[in-house]
Amino acid sequence: MPKPTDTSTMQTPPAGATAAKKGVTPATGAIVGTSAIVLMVELARSGALQEYKDALAPLLGWGPGLLMMVGFLWLVHTYAPPLIEAQHATATALQKLADAVEHNDGSNHDLVLAMQVNSDKLEQLRSTVAELQMQIQQFKTG
Length: 142
Prior knowledge:
85% helix, 2 domains, mainly alpha
């Protein structure tokens, strides 16, 4: 009698197994589709479909195009939502980056403005010190 297994010790299938399952579905569809076309061709050659030729002609004429359209719509339905979500995430990240750059640009502008003000004050202080030194020199000489 087998012992019940603990679910915490169960191993998950490797990532390759999941990818293999995803790859099997399109291959199976291709085999079934090809088999159906071969069957239709063989039935048409044998003459078994002669009485249905008026109904089958449009199907054979438009069928491959419709199958391609359905396949395209299936691909769009399958792959468009993740692609749109990825584009949305990228756009959101770029917007956040642009906002951060704009915020930092404003901070840098404020910093440059403060440095200019301090530079002007320092220049005024230097000129005041130079004037005071000249007055001191005049007192000493005069």
